[in-house]
Every structure is written in structure tokens, then in C-alpha cells.
Amino acid sequence: MSVLVCFHAHPDDEVFVTGGVMRQAADAGHRVVVVTATDGALGEVPDGLLDDGETLAQRRRRELEASTSALGAHRVVMLHYADSGMAGTAANANPAAFCNVDVDAAAARLAEILAEESADVLTIYDPNGGYGHPDHVQVHHVGVRAAELANVPHVYEAAVSRDHIRRLMQADPDWTADAQPPDLETFGLPESEITTVVDVTAALGAKRAAMLAHETQIGDFGPFLQMPDEQLRAAFGQEWFRRRGAPAGFAETALPL
């Protein structure tokens, strides 16, 4: 049995870029651990959804537990750093926000979990955090340092293939009609930098169930929940990674579990 640890910024981030590899790793008998840096307390929530006296952070914790259960996780750890908010918002200046915490201190906390779990594979984000969110960028820095401290043998930067998204948009301009299209000059990574493309079509049912679990985040997931299976498969049937330290020209179709 190998151990896969997926480090994410907020509850719900686990679904898009690592949900498939998590479910498939669990189904293959490996241990799957999810670590989330923040509680997602600054996320948006539909009016009237929270119960009386319930905070968004409390609801998102429950949503995370339901989502990771669908994805096969054996353990979920929240580090409970303050949500930094979207790039350019006032919350970015909060000294307690995750984007502003000391990298070595946060990495030491993550490294303790990695060592305790004897992690074989750690997933983080690319240096731009996929799309520039301050918490996602910090996940990259903290994750890289934690892997060094804990001597994790395999570290992967989870990302979206911007070339794949560009092809989808060119083939069907309406597929993102209900969502804000990404800036493809900065979003994700180009195919030339991706080392690892994993077919996760067998896990799409679990990914859809995990999306549904994040009820407060319907603004993010809503457009995708309406997709027919064929369209969902085209958009999310693969997960992409850049293996840190891989030699030029390296390519693979699975994580080393």
C-alpha cells in the first residue's frame, strides 16, 4: 500500500484537479489523505442556505467530509488558517491569512502529517496556484518546503491543461456559457510542461457526487453539474500534473502508487 496526500487551499478544491486520482488510488487499495490549508470562510454562499447560527466555515467542513468520503479519502486534516480571499481583495492584507503566514512554520505543520503518514506522493499546485489565488500560490510554496522537510519522494503540481481547455472552447464555444471563461494565457499549465496525464473517466461518478456535496459552492460547480456525461467526461475525464524534478521529455499516465 502506498500513501497519497493531496494538499489543497480550501474545501472544494480537492474535486477538480485530484478527485479522480484520489478515488482511483483508494479503489486500488492505497491510503488517501486530504489536507486543507483554510476553512474557506470567505467563500460565497447562497442566501438562506446556512442554518440558524451556522457559520460558512462549519458548513464547508461538513461538505468537505462528504466530498472526500465520495472520493475515497481515509483521513481529512484542516490546518485552519484564515482564508485569504480572492486576489486583490482587502482580506489579502490580513496578517493571519494563509497567504501571509511564515512558509517554514506552515510547512513544518504539513511535514509532520507527511512524516506521520509516510507519504509516498504529495500533490500541490503549480507556482501560480492554477489561476493566481493567493492561497493556492501559498499551497505551492508551503507544499514544496514540507516535502523537503519530510523527504517525500514524489511531488506533483496539480494543474489544468490550458491547451485542453482551449480546444474544448474552440470545439464548443457554449460549453462555458454559464461560467466565467478563464484567462488562458495564465490559467493552468501548457501541455509542454505537463508530465502526467491520468485518465480518470472511471471516477467521474465520484467526482460528480463530490461536486454535489459542496452545496454552498453552487456558484462554482453549478455550470458543471448541468453538463451531460459526455461533456463532463471531455472536461474532467483527465487530470494533469507536473512531476517536480522530472527530466526533459518525461511522460507518464499514472501517479507512482
Quaternary organisation: single chain
Could you give a short account of the major beta sheet? Answer: 7 strands, mixed
Quick one: CATH class? Alpha Beta
What is the general shape? Answer: globular
Q: Which structural category do the helix and sheet elements fall into?
A: alpha/beta
Radius of gyration: 17 Å
Number of helices: 8
Strand content: 15-25%
Q: What is the name of the CATH topology?
A: Rossmann fold
Q: Give the name of the CATH architecture.
A: 3-Layer(aba) Sandwich
Which whole number gives the mean pLDDT? 91
Distance between the termini: 8 Å
The CATH homologous superfamily is termed: LmbE-like
Helix content: 25-40%
Uncertain residue segments: none
How many discrete domains? 1
Strand order in the largest sheet: 3-2-1-4-5-7-6
> Number of DSSP strands?
7
Order of helices and strands: EHEHEHEHEHEHHHE
What does this molecule look like?
The protein has 257 residues and is α/β, with parallel strands linked by helices. The chain has a single domain, classed as Rossmann fold. Helix content is 38%, strand content 16%. It contains eight helices and seven strands. The protein has helices spanning 13-27, 56-70, 103-117, 134-150, 162-171, 204-213, 218-225, 229-236, and strands at residues 3-8, 31-38, 75-81, 121-125, 154-159, 196-199, 238-243. It has a seven-stranded mixed beta sheet, with helices on both faces. α2 (56-70) links the parallel β2 (31-38) and β3. It is globular and about 50 Å long. The mean pLDDT is 91.
